[in-house]
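Reposting from the mailing list since nobody answered there.

I have sequence plus structure tokens for a pair of proteins and want to know whether others read the tokens the same way I do. The first protein:
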Amino acid sequence: MARILIVDDDLSLQTSLELYFSAQGHEIYKASNGLQGLEMTKALKPEIIILDIIMPKMNGLEVCKRIKKKINIPIIFLSAKDSAEDRIKGLEAGADDYVTKPFSLKELELRINARLKQSDANKERKRLVFNDLVIDYNQKQAFLKGTLINLTPMEFELIWHLASQPNNLFSHKELMAKLWENPEKVNPNLLHVYIRRLRNKIESNPKKAKYILNVWGQGYIFKA
């Protein structure tokens, strides 16, 4: 069973979720505002977080960005904000899923189980192999044809984020939020600089990239 952190200022909802999921054997922890949620995440290292968006002290979008910047814990937004734009903002902040209120407890249970299963699979995949390219998360190193690639910490975080979810399109905003704590203060061209550096280091022919592909106007894909 898993350690689940619920971050929501609705105390009645907290209680309902606690009763439902603790009955299934999960360990339930609760936070009533964004800052408390951040502190409990650091202290408890939960296996999944259920996160509201509109909360006192710090909104859920900012909480999600800060958590994902430090550690890749599955996060599911549980919010009354149900427009397509709200969902996009939540996913761009780094959330793994987005459930709107009112919701079915059974549906939330299935979504949580799916994310926990995916997280377990990712923990087993700390070493990614793509033909002649090997990326080792534990060592924070990458190898091309058996030769160590000299990557900066930022370059490694970028390639790991892309390669750990191959064939998945990442928007410019999503990658910026992953790499920088305050992406709005960073020149967006800096992301292109890091992408170019990575291509020069991991691609046999950077001008005809086979791993890091650009989807014009949308973002980047790591091709497996």
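The second protein, same order (residues first, tokens after):
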Amino acid sequence: MYFSLSLLSFITAAVLWNTALSSPQVPPEVIASQYGLTTSTSMPFPSQTASPTDTQALLVSEWSLGKGRVQDNPQNLAFVDDPYPNKPVPGSSSVPGPVLQVTYAEGSFSHETGGAQFYTLWNRTDGGNFNTMMVTYELAFDQNFDWVKGGKLPGLRGGLNSSGCSGGNKADGLDCFSSRLMWRKNGAGEVYAYIPTPNNFCSEKDITCNSDFGISIDRGAFGFTNGQWVRVTLLVRLNDPPNVANGYIGLYYNDIQAISQGNLQIRASDTVAANGLYFSTFFGGKFFLADKDLNDFIAPSQACIKPVEQTNAPKQREKQPGDASTEIMIDSSGTYYEVSPSSQASTSASRPNEPRQLAQAQISLNDCLACSGCITSAESVLITLQSHTEVLNFLKENGSLPDSGTDHGPTASSSSSSSSTASSSSSTYKIPVVSISPQSLASLATAISASRSKDVSCSPLEVFRGLRIFFTETLGFSQVYDTTFARHIALKEHIKEFEERRNRSRGGTESEEEAGLPMLASACPGWICYAEKAHKEMLPYISWTKSPQQVMGTIVKEYLGRKWGKRQVFVFLECLHPGLWLTLIDLNDNRPDEIYHVTVMPCYDKKLEASRQDFYNEIYATRDVDCVITTGELEVLLRECGWELSRVAEEGGPERQARDAGSEKLKDGSTIPEMMQHGGTSSGSYLHSIISHIRAESQVPLVLEIKAIRNADYEEFTVYEENGSGDETGKGKVVFKGAKCYGFRNLQNIVRKIGKEKGVRTGAGAAGRLGGRVGAGRRLKKGNTETEDKGYDYVEVMACPGGCVNGGGQMKPIINEEKEKDEMDTQMQGWKWGDRDWVRKVEETYWSIGKGNDDDDEELSKKVMEAGLSFRTSYRAVESEVIGLAVKW
């Protein structure tokens, strides 16, 4: 990309002018005059071309750069000859001399990987601040420039926070703002700003808000072209602080106004002024990574290569003199063939050198996980035993399927049974039980709602009751639960453990074996897997409380099994009397190995969790959870059994709920509560349960403050006394500080932060802690004294951006064309319902879960907590089996 000599001719002033421009074509000088802008500065360009090194030297010395340097990628900047001297801005003449060229590395996606970034600082000669600023420049894209999904272009910024209001750092108007341009797909243009969004600003027409990043103003109002100089002029007028929405942003494209957006609250403090040019241009940025589908992407290493294998290869003939080396050819369909030059002229199928089709390499989940060292080879074998096919195979062998030919009731065939056969069958029979996560129910309900032609929503409770009918009547399951009661128990155990750790920290009795605070959530197996293999130093701080899945496994096999009692086994005894049924009742409780427990979860990592040796009962040789299937696998299971998602909703609808008798009562008459809600997050509400506990036990009123650090996936929660002694901030004593951290990018920041606070080096992996300690804690300057910054007491950690509702095993977005057509008026033409919107809809559906029959939940919770069950586990560092290129498949 190229910027011309008139680049960065920007005009600034403190005078405000409210009259809208009406002329269809307005040169920058006229705009400046109409807005009363009187101070102008032009950026000097050299008279000759310059190398990147000389370019950087000129910019630093003559462009008044903030921090006196180019912040990112100075090597991508150079003054070069004008590539398009004969294609000036329409209505203008070409200006002789070099232009500033910016290059973008292939595959770059941020200011850290391509393009360039710096900013300038300007002040009025009288020392005052600028409240209105305008920048105008000319630019040209290469003739063959690939727009891809978009990128940033220079604009204006203000405020003393030089690193804020960009890159996902949310703007609150107190210390910064930024307003840049963006090109989107096919060159569509827009203004991209980091400013506050009060008063339902995001609901206005032509405004596209992203909760984690900046806002798009009038996307597609103009369009960039290739191989042609164009002029853009951006004007920003700040509002009256703190909350008067009279700010303004205007954009002129080739001197014609394309965007005019008023009623803006750009700042919330008079300390924020317009400071100068924000030269920021690069492909995409972190916005595009998150905007795509909320997934973290880790570039594959050299170990992540699986060679093409040829199955059923023919017997190799001896190489003949003159034989050429083989080549790989790809036909129009993308199929690979191994050929030799002489084979291309051959048409005989019997010729030994005929092109041979190569089998396409298949990369399985095991391949991917084993490659990066995420799982061991032993764990990868266990994963293969967990699928919906395995569930069906078990049910057939167990005789649970209604059409399997085996029955455990009085309707069994009397012509083919014998006492010995029946006894053998009953002795091997296992009670099939399934537990379904609320995140899976929300995903399925959202998919059903999206597939309906009319705007009729489906609730998770309807899905759950429909699935109960499917599992019991079609597959022959004995019990169907959701996992919210197990989560209820897990949260109680979690709070208990937090109190133990807090007491150790206060009493100074913490050790590596029994650590204190901070306490890190342990419900996400992806996070546990990562910590065990990459960050041993974090293991002492990870909660020992089992996840809701494993708590449910413990409850099902070690508590509920004893409460159900043995099923009645009906045996036909022909030797006693033809047609006589004898009922044999085993009064003993069900052992853990007499129960087959299946869970439905939102992510594949739950399969790994269930396979951990910690959750294996050595005495009975059984696991707490025998098989885990994902939400998507459940949908496949439904289809293979002749059920569509729509039927699930119909079976679980109000008119059919009479068929659903609910959970079977236990011996004591109680039932397992259904669909219990816990306020907080859709990933378990661990952080919020601890905050609620702290506020409930406090003797003084407490105030909760929530602050977004980077985006909605990384937030800090601070609880302080409302009537404390206070400091210059007006806040009382901080009694608790926690964080919500989702996604590996944020997770790595948390690891480094905690390592610094606790004085341990991070990144040692399974090898253990590195020698020495780093400086623990961080000191803040308050007035004339220094105080220790309070570190985190608790962090809710999840590996998936967006949390568990965005697990990799969830339902994929379903686009309803009829609905989409109706929604086009509120969305940009050509922009479809993206994954972020889909996750947001799943989140909304999740919170529509209503409580079921939970009248006895506290009484039953107390019984379960006092039953002597173990709801805790442990962790250990694991050495990776992967050694670079030595990976063998």
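Reply #1 (J.P.):
I read it the same way you do. The chain has 20 helices and 34 strands.
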